[in-house]
Hints:
Blueprint: E1 17-19, E2 22-26, H1 29-40, H2 45-59, E3 69-76, E4 79-85, H3 95-99, H4 119-130, H5 135-138, H6 140-148, E5 150-151, H7 154-167, H8 176-182, E6 194-195, H9 198-210, H10 213-216, H11 219-230, H12 237-241, E7 246-248, E8 251-255, E9 258-262, H13 269-279, H14 290-310, H15 327-334, E10 354-361, E11 366-372, E12 382-383, E13 388-389, E14 420-424, E15 427-435, H16 439-452, H17 458-463, E16 467-471, E17 474-477, H18 483-491, E18 495-498, E19 507-513, E20 520-524, E21 531-534
Parallel strand pairs: 17-18
Antiparallel strand pairs: 1-20, 2-10, 2-21, 3-4, 3-11, 4-7, 5-6, 8-9, 9-14, 10-11, 12-13, 14-15, 15-19, 16-17, 19-20
Organism: Paenibacillus hemerocallicola
Pfam families: G_glu_transpept (PF01019)
GO molecular function: transferase activity
Amino acid sequence: MQFDAHYHPYPSYRAPVYSINGMVATSQPLAAQAGLDILKKGGNAIDAAIATAAALTVLEPTSNGIGGDAFALVWTGGKLHGLNGSGPSPASISIEAVRGRGYERIPEYGVVPVTVPGAPAAWAELSARFGRLSLAETLEPAIRYAEEGYPLSPTLALLWGRAFQAYRKCAGEEFRSWFGTFAPEGRAPRAGELWRSPDHAETLRRIGETNAEAFYRGGLADRIGEFVAAYGGFLSKADLEAYKPEWVDPIRVGYRGYDVWEIPPNGQGLVALIALNILQGFELRGREDADTVHKQIEAIKLAFADGEKYITDRRRMTVEASRFLTESYGRLRGSLITDLAGQPEAGEPTQSGTVYLATADGEGNMVSFIQSNYMGFGSGLVVPGTGIALQNRGHYFSLDPSHDNRLEPNKRTYHTIIPGFLTKDGEPVGPFGVMGAAMQPQGHVQVVSNAIDFHLHPQAALDAPRWQWLRNKEVLVEPGFPIPLAQALSRKGHDIRVALESTTFGRGQVIWRDPDSGVLCGGTDSRTDGTVAAW
């Protein structure tokens, strides 16, 4: 990756971080340090990723938890491996069963949208296949923080407070444990205040000691199943017992001499690749050129139209992912882009709340890892006495029987969380990711373009002002977005709105490796409390 290490066109208090022995980049400084400690203890990048991910369930519970899902891209042994750690819907659920309870769409909170949590199994699978240390060892830092507590960082406190206000609207006995766990003083903890969760620590300890067996087939599985059943939910212990993460072949698209990799559906990484495949057919003149940003927005709109129509459990997709990534389909979709903002519609290819972390070690191993409960803390449910906040991924299913992502038993839903990875000529450049619901593929496209088209180093590529397509012709730009550029986009027909803050524009991490020296260069998003820990 060619970039000027001294050039930073955007205001930032951060410079890129360099190291040779190892690096961990994520949104919480203590979590990054936890991963670095594991590297120094003799673990590899995979061990560090697990340690960081587990620590984030404690250190950033506003975005992920033990009861959530995870995806990983792992470069090791000269090859990129993909792990789908998302869980399916319960075996007993159906459109008829949900509609029979009076719902026109799957609710956001409560027991109905709860799907099988995949994160603990993903940790165990990564540890067993590629880790050097035991799972119990890699979870030690997370256990310590849960037992002893830690002071909240500023962005974390802000998001925690907003979540508390949202969950206050949830009525029912089933939500009581959430408040007892995450608002023990009757309010959200504030920046600088200590929060601890002994139940969380004990659950992590049991997961580590049993390689996650306790969570899926032991006492923890019993407690999850009993709790959900007590409030009329669908998830059962049998669903947990049947679950296993899936190793998958990552999907790619070529972009100006590089290969950009994503996890295949059910993840929405395909959206980012479709957009880049479209943009490959255009010359982008400048980073803050209105024509460049216009084409990026239009490409994302077309990509989301395809994604929203077709992405679901890959075993049940009506169109194979590879069909969206052909050169001919990219040209066809690109031909729809004019000088004015358009209304996106899905094409028809022919036969021809999330945390993100990146790790690397001195041996060449690199990991792109993402983990989430969805919509912040998830379902609003915490299994009493465990600290397990259950996700609400089922909310994304459609109750329309004709929709590709319709609710069905034992099915993975369209998933927002996506890790990214970049290679060139078969060699790793490194992991990257931007967390934040529908912002994620948009963030991937903007960061990749910043790095490849405009040669920005990792920190500058992350700091560059972002736009976010919302719906139809509505585009949100963050406070630091250039006003003349926003005005020029408005003249092209985009409905431009300026956000008052940057919390919805994603929080990313990047680690690139120099192919000759092996030196690592990392950046962490200035929109969050993160850091790059290195040695």
